[in-house]
Write the structure tokens for this entry.
Amino acid sequence: MRTLTVLAPGPLTTVQDGGRPGQGALGIGRSGACDRAAAALANRLLGNAPDAAVLEATLGGLVLRADVHLVVTTTGARCSAAHNAPLTLRAGDELRLGQPAAGLRTYVAVRGGLAVEPVLGSRATDLLSGLGPPVLSAGDVLPVGSAAGPMPGVDVAPVPDPPGGEVTVRVLPGPRTDWFTDPAALTGAAWEVTGESNRIGLRLAGTPLERARTGELASEGMVRGALQVPPSGQPVLFLADAPVTGGYPVVGYVEDADVDRCGQLRPGQTLRFRAAAR
Amino acid sequence: MRVLPSGSTALLVELDGLDDVLGLYAALTAEPIEGVVDVVPAARTVLLVTDPAVTGLAAVEDAVRRTTPRAGERGGGETVELPVVYDGADLADVAAHLGVDTAEVVRRHTGAEWTVAFCGFAPGFGYLVPDGEPWDVPRRPSPRTRVPPGSVALAGEFSGVYPRESPGGWQLVGRTDVPVFDVDREPAALLRPGVRVRFTEAG
């Protein structure tokens, strides 16, 4: 069997793919890569299906050893010699991820895709529900699938690295803007990404959003990008492992195409919202 | 029916109550709207998640407004029987709250016909509502950090079964050996929206 061995997992590395869409009615969230565009790019560079299983490393640190001849690449937060560019590893060669200068999540794809056992149609690890393969540990041996398509023959994909510093994303109205005295305060302010953030969501800190009403909201469905506001008034921006339903009002949604960039934000970075053109 | 915005890929349909939610969910499951990739019922709402490559939100809104909710969905689904040992840590508290003895709680819980209204909280955790007299049981004042899997519980107007060990604030009245969620089974969730449930007292 073709395999990769994990020599060091770094702070947090999980297997991710396109997730488990379409199972929300069973209480099963979508999960999948936090930065979908980066994961899809990594697969595209290797001729894989766009939602083939890849590794999602958080703040680098991952060290892998190829047990056979393999072609790999990394995308997202830059911290390897194979960034946005396919790299051939011979049996015994190592791929080392350093510490990215900016961005949070690096995707490591291998030609043929990771072939760990799927759970409910997906190989994604959902850290909220516990579904999917376990978080990577040193010594794990990961099976690699067979290549499906031809190599696209691209040496380097010219895509920008995730930025450090202040990031602005587009926001659309949520279902419960009427729960807030001034929902536009969301777009007027700067929000700090706090250290309480993870694959489930970014906990933001700023001037609290004031409620226009008291009382409780019956839990309702939501998807990634939702800006849910608990009683503290400090929004939570949900990412890949968002719960299927939530009981706090959602004041807005980050434009879906911009959620990927939010998945690259580190604690301490500033996030701003601007109203999306409709 | 009120259709509320939920970003660039989803719409939230707000309805008057659980029966309307079940009826709309049943209609949208029987005749799916093109480009809708997920339909998520909850207590008062149904979320429609779309694939923007296939459809637009305006088209989906038109289609859902033209959808007729199915009537009488409570009672239409398959029936699941769950044998329960009624020895939950909160059974006496629930009885006291309802002003009855514990045997009467068991009699009411096994006597009711329940329907899964929606899922949430964890994969396979169904929120069950009774056909007859509604229940009204407060949550525990402070949640437990560890509720064993299979715990049969009550909170608010709902009953439920914990699919796996988790924290939880519901009142525990008993336990069942039937696994309500199993990733190796098809379907993985036993308690899906619309499924009817009867609790029986295990011998």
Remarks:
- Chain B touches chain A through 39 residues (CB under 8 Å).
- Chain B has two domains: 2-65, 79-201.
- Helices of chain B lie at 18-30, 57-65, 91-98, 102-111.
- DSSP finds four helices and 13 strands in chain B.
